[in-house]
Design brief:
heterodimer, A: ABC transporter involved in vitamin B12 uptake, BtuC, 2 strands, about 75% helix, globular, B: mainly alpha, ABC transporter involved in vitamin B12 uptake, BtuC, two-stranded antiparallel ribbon
Chain lengths: ~290, ~325
């Protein structure tokens, strides 16, 4: 089976497309966890909120999920600022972020999941869009648009964020706050304000990632948990906050899962991320592009 | 608490539980009490690593479910080779399996910062669920039914139980009291002081010669074993086990919320939290709805970590200290 070149090529392409989508999932966590040191395990739960917005506007008014995702980013940005404010006032300022902060985000994830279940139930929801179900064929390779569109949107978002972080003043300040808080303070910037903006940005990516998620397949509230392992595996493997590393790691995970899907069994795919996570932690905790500590 | 006071209270709890078991036959009470005691054991287990050492375990449901699945697998395997062991064998098996897994997870992740352990346990629960979804021997995704055995008799028939759930209640009561004794013993021992030192400042503890990694590993193993103990009788209690219910997130949230509400730095914190929250949950499930009950646990957990980060016990202690300062 592995000798069939067409199947092999298809598996690689499917993995790349999947990895592109995983980049969108992990990007916000890469900022929050990798750069701000905020262990936001509720990030995938916020992504599911994004999916339900896309579902709501898509099924009620026929809006395109990607456009909904982009339109909702300001809402998520403000939500991120509010969450960070609470987090800062309750935990970061008093230095209790490790135990209580983790429990806070865990509780938040649980509240989001249960609230969505209370409103929408545990049924799978999907969204209508003209490109879902369309298949391009390039040679022997299948390119389903329901994977290709999320891939393209995710890559555009990643490139945009990359340039924002490396070229603008606030972007550079965000990178600086993760490296040396005190130096930033001496330069006349308020680290709390910078972190607040950064966390807002991180959640804004969840809005778009959520829309992409519901394009790829139907969504129900509890699937956020499958993405916690994936997102953290990508961020850790990518080297904690390096955008380039995050993209690389997402592709590695995507391709690895794709091979498991094709050559083993689909039900084992969620275990791949965990394997990668444990392997990275055991062998090279600083990730592929991380600074050696 | 004085030594005599503690053992007196434990004896009183045991006598009260046994009296309760002899005086009534209403099965609902035993079902409810069993659920509270099961949560109590898990809260204590969680606290031994999460509270004493400061390393959060989000995968409580995973360890619990593995304890339950160890029972399911043994219950299928042992009778096929001619054994029908008593419940205590299953409980011990659950403890060993989950203790070893806690140790292994700890070995891979506890050398790094605590958050990696937290994330690893979260992902681990997903992996175990994936595994159980695929393992046909224990029913895979469809689950397994287990017939309720006849209530056993002890001491040549002098001790017997009118129903199996009553027997399970008594077993869980003994397990809960044992867990409390273990937790208190650890908190007051040299080992427990080592754990507290790790929680307060791991680098400083290491510098003072505390063998941090070894203590963390032991702590992770004890945590896992107690989780497994809580899960092992579950298949007989629920009579049906499938991955969806055994790996339920509600179990994980409860075992974190209870110690957090009670106070994680004290051995009696999780006991206070579990009794309060567990009783409130049973009451709300019966009087209002079980969905709302689940929702409230999340809200209470978040509210508690924000408003009373040291739990109710810590809050009361602070109040007392203030009152003393004024008087």
């Amino acid at each position: 089976m592995i000798t069939d070149p067409g199947l092999f090529l298809n598996t690689v392409v499917a993995g790349l497309l999947l990895g592109g989508f995983y980049t969108a999932v992990a990007l916000g966590l890469s900022i929050a966890f990798g750069q701000l040191d905020i262990v936001n395990i509720a990030h995938p739960a916020f992504i599911i909120i994004g999916s339900y917005f896309a579902y709501l506007f898509g099924s009620q008014y026929g809006f395109d999920p990607v456009l909904t995702g982009i339109a909702m980013t300001p809402v998520f940005f403000v939500l991120g600022i509010v969450v960070y404010r609470v987090y800062y006032a309750s935990f970061e300022r008093t230095g209790q972020e490790s135990l209580s902060g983790l429990a806070f985000f865990f509780g938040l994830m649980f509240i989001i999941e249960v609230t969505l279940i209370l409103i929408y139930g545990v049924d799978y929801r999907l969204v209508p869009a003209p490109y879902i179900g369309v298949n391009w064929k390039i040679g022997v390779v299948d390119v389903p648009l329901r994977m290709a569109i999320p891939f393209a949107v995710s890559m555009l978002m990643t490139i945009g964020l990359f340039f924002y972080l490396s070229k603008t003043f606030i972007g550079r300040a965000i990178l600086a706050v993760s490296q040396d808080r005190q130096a930033l303070q001496l330069m006349g910037a308020d680290p709390v304000k910078i972190k607040q903006v950064a966390f807002g940005l991180a959640l804004a990516t969840a809005s778009i990632a959520g829309a992409l998620l519901i394009i790829i397949g139907p969504v129900e509230p509890s699937i956020n948990r499958e993405y916690i392992g994936r997102a953290f595996a990508i961020v850790v493997l990518g080297g904690m906050g390096s955008i380039t590393g995050t993209v690389l790691a997402a592709f590695i995970l995507g391709i690895a899962e794709s091979f498991i899907l094709t050559y083993a069994s689909p039900s084992w795919a969620p275990a791949v991320a965990f394997g990668i996570l444990l392997f990275t932690l055991a062998v090279r905790p600083s990730g592929i592009l991380g600074r050696q500590s | 608490m004085r030594l005599g006071g503690f053992w007196g209270l434990m004896a009183a709890a045991l006598v009260a539980g046994l009296a309760f078991a002899t005086l009534t036959n209403n099965e609902y009470y035993f079902t409810a009490a069993y659920a509270i005691l099961q949560a109590l054991v898990m809260a204590i287990a969680w606290n031994i690593l999460g509270g004493f050492t400061g390393y959060v375990n989000f995968g409580s449901a995973g360890f619990f479910a593995l304890g339950a699945y160890a029972t399911v697998a043994l219950h299928k395997f042992l009778p096929s080779i001619g054994f029908a062991p008593p419940l205590v064998v299953y409980v011990l098996a659950g403890a060993v399996v989950c203790g070893l897994i806690g140790l292994a997870t700890g070995y891979l992740t506890l050398r790094l910062r605590g958050v990696y352990f937290a994330i690893a346990t979260l992902a681990l629960a997903i992996v175990f669920q994936t595994f159980m979804n695929n393992w046909g021997y224990v029913g895979a995704a469809k689950g397994t039914s287990i017939l309720t055995p006849d209530p056993p008799q002890f001491l040549w028939g002098y001790v017997s139980f009118s129903s199996y759930v009553k027997y399970l209640f008594v077993v869980m009561l003994l397990l809960a009291l044992t867990a409390i004794v273990i937790s208190r013993y650890i908190a007051n021992s040299k080992f427990g002081r080592g754990l507290a030192a790790i929680r307060d400042d791991e680098v400083a503890a290491e510098c003072m010669g505390v063998p941090t990694l070894r203590l963390k590993l032991i702590s992770a193993a004890v945590m896992g074993a107690l989780m497994g103990v809580a899960g092992a009788p579950y298949p007989f209690f629920a009579t049906f086990v499938d991955p969806q219910s055994a790996f339920s997130l509600v179990i994980a949230v409860n075992s974190i919320a209870m110690p957090m509400i009670g106070g994680t730095a004290y051995w009696y914190g999780p006991v206070v939290g579990a009794l309060l929250l567990g009783t409130a949950q049973e009451a709300i499930s019966v009087t209002i709805s079980s969905e709302l009950n689940v929702f409230l646990v999340g809200v209470v957990l978040v509210a508690c970590v924000i408003l009373a980060p040291r739990g109710l016990v810590g809050f009361v202690n602070d109040m007392r200290a203030k009152a003393k300062g004024r008087g």
